[in-house]
Specification:
The structure holds 2 protein chains of 2 kinds. Chain A is α/β, with parallel strands linked by helices. Chain A has 2 domains: 207 residues, Rossmann fold, CATH 3.40.50.2300; 146 residues, Rossmann fold (3-Layer(aba) Sandwich), CATH 3.40.50.2300. Helix content of chain A is 48%, strand content 18%. A 7-stranded mixed beta sheet of chain A has the order 7-6-8-9-10-13-14, with helices on both faces. By secondary structure, chain B is mainly α. In chain B, 73% of the residues lie in helices and 4% in strands. In chain B, strands 1-4 form a two-stranded antiparallel sheet. In chain B, 48% of the residues are buried. Chains A and B meet through β7, α8, α9 and α10 of A and α1, α10 and α11 of B.
């Protein structure tokens, strides 16, 4: 009994002392770095760049593709940085698509003095809390895939993204629906999630401004399989177009059940529909479905084709929609890093300097997108791509692209 | 306003009946087990889900061998229904043996928790197998009955719009009715049925009258789970796409239906299921019209559950239930 108690007290004390030591140690290094005298201590010429994406779980395919894209860009730049006297290293972290895990990883990244940047995340829900930690440590983050408005709207100095925002996607879809498809009467269905409702509302606002009439704005529940009730309303109102804000599981069923009911008008949705599973669920019914996405087809340009080939050669895998975005995000980050090193007289810059230089990057030409950050960290050249399913095959056909400028 | 509601009424009734039939047969499983053991088998929704997966797997295998094209759809359906209900029936018996029987004399709360545990276990096992075999846990089966039948409701009265029905609707409805009637007959007219009712009334006394209580309970689980599995197949045929989580919401609604009809009462469960399905569909299609857009279709569940609460306040034993007298 006594022994047990002593042991536990001993263990607790050790832990407490350890934590204290860890914290104070961190503080010291931090000041050293901020002082700008080259990050004191040994191995100062190693620069690590972290990636944080889901590498396990349901969206691991997408997460891994971002990591591999980033890895490719980093390895290509290694020789270049070698000349400047620095050794580049990639440290991949697995955020599991889970905010808690993302934040815990971000703490680790922040504590590692050699990390000078982060490429990530896949999910906005993970990026938002994790980026608070990056801001604390002034580590620049470049996101390849987060579309939620809140990611950059919080005005953090370190947070940047190269893809388009949700409040641009909705209106871009509306513009296409009203102007190109000639939809005058539109019925909107959303799945009551933050993503679905936000997108549907942005679409609604955009469509109303362009003079379209909104016949209904109805919700469905995620996890349900029978949407006939809402579709009966659609049937009664006879719209020219149905807009769906939500994900592919419900979207696929909705499309299928709508076509079963004899509703033949075009159906449009956001990047939540952008999955091969949508085609699997809806089958032939998917024809005449449009979707907007922040991810462009990589293989439509020569640079994109070359990238796809390089990627295949290196990893033995086909590219996914966000592979090239991972590559470009890393590219932008390294560009900023390089500028910071040069501005610092070829010495190791501070994280703050790197973050400032990343934000200042102008007209960086990537594989899929050109990048110039505005004052919030959003990419001025971000585009929304519009796809159409002409047959039950994924990926869909690129119809149009809408750019901000 | 009334006109608008009437326009869509034929279609709403048809869609509501299909959904209701699915709710009703799932509700039967809840009600049977509760009637005999006074145990709410929360794993029942997952047995239903497993049935949907087993049925779809069989159909996909048939399609893979090219048998599906060469055999009449009805034969395929009966075959799949029989095999699936045997599989899920045995699964139900196994669950009872492993998770419920050892705890039969434990407090009710403990069996309730095991039931929830079993349901999570089933979800993840099915998900694991589906992902292993298919790479994706959302499964889409081959469509057996995809024909469309138009119903000229407008010829009855010009108030109504025409409705259209998938031919699988009739299959679902007919199979559901056959299952319900057979079950009702079995419980009320056969010797085993009598034994089940006896066990439901008083387990100890029934045991003294040389009823093998363990066997009767196992049989109840077999029948209840077989029905659940068969419903899963019907669901997969009607809606096409299934995932390991369909059992949760549907199980909850079916449970509600069973309570609405009077839990423990088989006819009550059927009635409650169909009533809930029709009500839900009606609410989803008409709430915005009736409330002038204040309430959207997303409030359909609120509507259905509000009615449930009202029923339970004024008739706590459910629509068909008898006031239970505490056994002394």
């Amino acid at each position: 009994m006594v022994l047990k108690k002593t042991l536990s007290i001993l263990a607790t004390t050790t832990l407490a002392v350890g934590i204290l030591a860890g914290c104070s140690g961190g503080q010291k290094n931090d000041t050293a770095n901020n002082g700008g005298n080259g990050g004191g201590g040994g191995g100062s010429n190693v620069i690590k760049i972290a990636t944080q994406t889901p590498l396990s779980g349901g969206s691991a395919t997408l997460g891994e593709s971002i990591k591999l894209g980033a890895q490719l860009a980093l390895e290509e730049q290694q020789a270049n940085f070698e000349k400047l006297g620095f050794k580049l290293e990639l440290v991949p972290y697995d955020d599991q698509g889970d905010p808690k895990k993302g934040v815990a990883n971000a703490q680790l990244i922040g504590a590692d003095k050699q990390v000078f940047g982060v490429v990530g995340h896949l999910n906005s829900g993970v990026a938002i809390p994790s980026s608070e930690i990056y801001e604390k440590y002034s580590i620049p983050m470049v996101s390849p895939a987060n579309t939620a408005t809140d990611v950059t709207d919080r005005g953090l100095k370190t947070v940047n993204r190269i893809c388009a925002r949700d409040d641009f996607q909705g209106p871009a879809g509306a513009k296409f629906a009203v102007e190109k498809l000639g939809a005058k009467k539109i019925f909107i269905i959303q799945d009551k999630t933050a993503y679905g409702t936000g997108l549907a509302e942005a679409f609604k606002k955009g469509a109303e401004e362009l003079g379209a009439q909104i016949l209904g704005f109805e919700g469905i529940t995620v996890g349900e399989k029978d949407f006939n009730g809402v579709l009966n309303q659609v049937l009664a109102k006879k719209p020219d177009l149905i807009y769906f804000g939500g994900l592919y599981t419900e979207g696929g069923l909705l499309i299928k059940q709508a076509r079963d009911k004899g509703i033949t008008v075009p159906i449009m949705g956001g990047d939540g529909l952008d999955s091969s599973t949508l085609v699997q669920i809806a089958g032939d019914a998917v024809k005449n479905t449009y979707m907007t996405s922040a991810a462009g087809l990589t293989t439509v340009t020569d640079a994109g084709k070359q990238f796809a080939e390089k990627y295949k050669q290196k990893f033995g895998k086909e590219i996914e929609s966000y592979s090239a975005y991972g590559y470009d995000a890393m590219g932008v980050l390294l560009k900023g890093l390089e500028n910071a090193i040069k501005a610092n007289g070829n010495k190791l810059p501070t994280r703050q300097q790197v973050a400032e230089e990343v934000r200042k990057v102008q007209d960086y030409q990537g594989v899929v997108t050109k990048v110039s950050f505005d004052e919030k960290g959003d990419n001025k050249y971000a585009k929304i791509y519009i796809y159409k399913f002409d047959e039950a095959k994924y990926p869909a056909k690129l119809e149009d692209e809408v750019s901000k400028q | 306003m009334i006109n608008e509601v009437l326009h869509t009424l034929p279609q709403v009734l048809i869609d509501g009946l299909t959904l209701g039939a699915v709710y009703a047969i799932v509700a039967l499983g809840y009600t049977m087990v509760y009637g005999i053991l006074e145990l709410i088998n929360f794993a029942h929704g997952e047995i239903f889900m497993t049935g949907a997966f087993v049925g779809t797997a069989i159909l996909l295998t048939f399609a893979g061998f090219g048998w599906l094209a060469s055999m009449p759809a009805l034969v395929a359906l009966v075959l799949v229904l029989v095999v699936t209900s045997v599989v899920t029936g045995l699964l139900g018996m196994g669950i009872e043996r492993v998770a419920y029987r050892p705890l039969r004399n434990a407090p009710k709360l403990i069996t309730l928790i095991t039931a929830i545990g079993v349901s999570f276990l089933l979800q993840d096992i099915v998900r694991f197998i589906a992902e292993l075999k298919n790479g994706n846990y959302i499964l889409t089966g081959p469509s057996l009955f995809s024909g469309q039948i138009g119903i000229k409701a407008s010829s009855i009265s010009s108030i109504f719009n025409d409705a259209s029905v998938k031919s699988s609707f009739f299959i679902v409805l007919i199979v559901a009715v056959i299952m319900m009637v057979t079950l009702d007959f079995f419980v009320n007219k056969t010797k085993w049925g009598m034994a089940m009712r006896a066990v439901a009334q008083d387990r100890e006394t029934a045991a003294l009258m040389s009823v093998n209580v363990n066997k009767v309970i196992a049989l109840t689980f077999f029948i209840g789970s077989a029905l659940g599995g068969a419903t899963g197949v019907l669901f997969a045929i009607q809606y096409g796409t299934i995932d390991p989580y369909i059992g949760f919401i549907l199980g909850l609604k079916a449970f509600t239906a069973a309570v609405l009809g009077g839990i423990g009462n088989i006819r009550g469960a059927m009635f409650g299921g169909i009533l809930l399905g029709v009500m839900e569909m009606f609410a989803a299609a008409n709430l915005p019209v009736v409330s002038h857009g204040v309430l959207g279709a997303e409030y359909k569940d609120v509507f259905a559950f509000a009615i449930l609460i009202i029923v339970l306040i004024f008739k706590p034993e459910g629509l068909f239930g008898k006031v239970s007298v505490e056994k002394v």
